[in-house]
Amino acid sequence: MPENKAMPTGPGTLCWFELMTPDTEKAGAFYTQLFGWKTENMPMANGNYTIFQRGSDGVGGMMKTPPEAAGAPPSWTCYVHVADIEASHRKAVDLGAKSCMPPTVIPNIGRFAIITDPTGATLALFQPQG
Predict the structure, then answer these.
(1) Residue whose C-alpha is closest to residue 128's, from 12, 13, 1
(2) Chain-centre distance of CA 50, in angstroms?
(3) Is 11 helix (H, G, I), strand (E, B) or coil?
(4) Of the ranges 14-28, 38-52, 116-130, which one carries the lowest mean pLDDT score?
(5) Terminus-to-terminus CA distance in the chain, angstroms?
(6) CA-wise closest residue to 113 among 103, 99, 100, 128
(7) 44 pLDDT tier (thresholds 50, 70, 90)
(8) Over pLDDT 90: what percentage of the chain?
(9) What does the alpha-carbon distance between residue 77 and residue 89 come to, in Å, rounded to a whole number?
(10) Residue 14 and residue 34: Cα distance in Å, rounded?
């Protein structure tokens, strides 16, 4: 995830927002017009990833809903910066969260995990590389 100098950083802060939608073209047009964001496409092994930018800062991303999630409604996921992805994921599960995705590597970016809290809300944990 590109560095965003406009947002607070460090463990415990929101650090990224990601939209999963079946129509990235329509969503991209909407959000760029609504907020004045620019977009930058980043090729990935499983398709294209769009980075939303405010000026030179990346503020979020967007990807097409993958085939295995076909039919899921479009949704935004918030990422929270953590110091230790393994410890944070384990603690979340110990506190009653459901693990939707265990700690996973994003090459050259960092590691993330996705949990659902005890109330049913989904949240991503993110540990930057380095």
Answers:
(1) 1
(2) 11
(3) coil
(4) 38-52
(5) 13
(6) 103
(7) confident
(8) 77
(9) 16
(10) 21
In order of start, what are the domains of the chain with their CATH numbers?
Answer: 14-128 (3.10.180.10)
Instruction: Give residue 17's pLDDT.
Output: 95
- For residue 10, the Cα-to-chain-centroid distance in whole angstroms is 16
Task: State the residue for tokens 């809300």.
Answer: 121
Q: Greatest CA span in the chain, whole angstroms?
A: 42
Among 29, 97, 91, 86, which residue's Cα sits nearest to residue 62?
Answer: 29
| Sign of the dihedral defined by the CA atoms of residues 77, 40, 65, 99, in that order | negative
Q: Which residues face 36 on adjacent strands? A: none
SS3 31: helix
pTM score, whole prediction:
0.85
| Pairing outcome for strands 98-106 and 110-116 | antiparallel
| 3-state DSSP assignment of residue 129 | coil
